[in-house]
Amino acid sequence: MYNIHEIWGEKMHIDFNELGLRIKKRRRELGLKQNELSEMMGISNNYLSNIENGHSIPSLEVFSDICIKLKITPDLLLLGVIRVDNIPENIKDNLKLCTNEELQLIDGIIRCILENRSGGQN
Predict the structure, then answer these.
(1) pTM of the full predicted structure?
(2) What architecture does CATH give domain 3-81?
(3) DSSP H helical segments within the chain, as ranges?
(4) Could you tell me if 109 and 117 are in contact, meaning their C-beta atoms sit under 8 angstroms apart?
(5) Banded model confidence at residue 10, pLDDT cuts 50, 70, 90
């Protein structure tokens, strides 16, 4: 762990080895090879490999681009958690991580909840 930051009144440790593992995991979830992601980002495959293995700390610009390309929130990637204090934002952040099939399932669940709540008059 290289840095300690205070977030939400608590000290948070950024473990760059864990950050690299989360990047690798998310890349694989999206079916991307390391060289594909590095090409999309315009960085060398060695640099991305070093980030994923915790040997290099990405610049803010590279980190931001990783979040965009992997469709993942910075807090989840950095800390392994999504904001705990804002449920609507958490839901939106989590929805960004879902596939189209998962989104359709979630939509059906929400519709079912709303129909049951209103007695089917929705």
Answers:
(1) 0.62
(2) Orthogonal Bundle (1.10)
(3) 16-29, 34-41, 45-52, 60-70, 74-79, 87-95, 100-117
(4) no
(5) low
